[in-house]
Please model this.
Amino acid sequence: MSCTIIVGGFFGDEGKGKIVAHIAHQDRPSIIARGGVGPNAGHTVQVGEKEYGVRMVPSGFVYPEAALMIGSGVLVDPRVFLREVDLVDVQGRIFVDGRCGVIEEEHIARDKASGHLRDKIGSTGTGCGPANADRVLRTSRQAKDVPELADFITDVAEDVNSALDRDEVVLLEGTQGFGISLYFGTYPFVTSKDTSASQIAADNGVGPTRIDDVIVVFKAYPTRVGEGPFSTEMTAERSHELGIEEFGTVTHRQRRIGTWDGKMARYSAMINGCTQAAITGIDRIDPACFGATEYDQLTKAARDFIAQAENDIGKPVTLISTGPEMSQIIDLRGKL
Model:
């Protein structure tokens, strides 16, 4: 049995999709199950010359042998889901828990019409906040009530736990990042539920004693989209000088760029129960590291940064992304 959770350690956009895709190809899971909020969070996965941005389908879809599942804690927008199933051709191997909440058109309209959510909080406008509110009020539909989803319905908790009973490998994929957790983030500038590792396990019906590893993904230069505190934020001029300019997967809004936040990294690692960490964007610390696949290929500046990150996090950095493609990564997990 092996059950690993992968979550974001900062404000989202840490490159979790690539890390999940890499681990999937290396560890060969039978199931990749997604937790998190809903289609307000996107993953970008680059495979060769193709780049896929998905909001509902788990980013581990690039590993073709795994069943893909969306846990009961996640909100499902049937329109987005069905479009992505066709886009990335996962018909027949993707499933939705029948207890998932459903995002209706009126949830999206309420989200976009709310001055508080749109202007103050910086909502993505995907309907997740209103849909979660209706779920708490017990007035929303569930996925099993939507005819268009009938062919995809399953009991994710049963499927995942049965796979673990058979000693199979399972990956639980989180979305967004620790800094916008409803419970632990920069409230009120947060998303509509918790985003920590324990929540991702609960979203998929997996008890805490069944988790083997929690990999928290951190970005060398953290980013944030929308409103809210960002203590290490640099000026746009400075980020442009460094050659860093990014845009959100879902909103396409320009991301705010910051420097490494050791204090936040340590707190995030603590709450998430981090057992090992991944660092993405090391090639921005030193471009000479671009494409490296062995630790010995890293420059002194990059190795010093990793050492400082490990000291801040309090756990080993075992995955180091050196570029956007899946092959551009250093995997040290076998050396623990």
